[in-house]
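Q: I'm building a small set of examples for a reading group on sequence design. Run inverse folding on the following structure and report the sequence directly after it, with nothing in between.
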């Protein structure tokens, strides 16, 4: 039916991607590969997982170089879109997942499903970079809000 939907999909963070954001000590070098499993994956699940994991690590106080921010862009009915939704992801022409570290051009995820021109790729990548920077600013805002009301005991 043309659907790229799945029932169970491993979402794996490679050691290179994890090393870009988490500060590992030598004792944790062997624990760098992390996997999450999502059930009934739809649309931007593979982008939501790195965002959620990054926020959870920050909330847990894990030392990190910076946050990972991710989103998807795509092409459906000839139009390039940001934050691709279910039908666009499953039945659109192209779906591209992108994740950056610190809202910069430090990519830790770039996956394209579909066929696009070089010009379309550049347009989608620029859109994704701006989107990731926006997600990053919202992540920082949420963490700042969370901890601005925390009292420190003396």
């Amino acid at each position: 039916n043309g659907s790229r939907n799945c029932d169970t999909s491993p979402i794996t963070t490679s050691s290179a991607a994890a090393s870009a954001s988490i500060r590992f000590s030598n004792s944790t070098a062997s624990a760098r590969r992390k996997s999450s499993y999502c059930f009934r994956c739809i649309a931007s699940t593979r982008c939501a997982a790195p965002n959620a994991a990054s926020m959870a690590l920050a909330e847990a106080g894990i030392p990190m170089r910076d946050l990972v921010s991710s989103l998807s862009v795509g092409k459906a009915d000839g139009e390039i879109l940001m934050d691709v939704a279910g039908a666009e992801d499953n039945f659109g022409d192209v779906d591209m997942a992108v994740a950056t570290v610190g809202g910069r051009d430090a990519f830790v995820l770039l996956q394209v499903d579909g066929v696009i021109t070089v010009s379309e790729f550049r347009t989608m990548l620029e859109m994704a970079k701006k989107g990731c920077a926006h997600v990053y600013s919202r992540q920082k805002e949420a963490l700042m809000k969370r901890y601005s009301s925390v009292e420190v005991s003396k």
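Residues 1-16, 26-33 have pLDDT under 50 and may be disordered.
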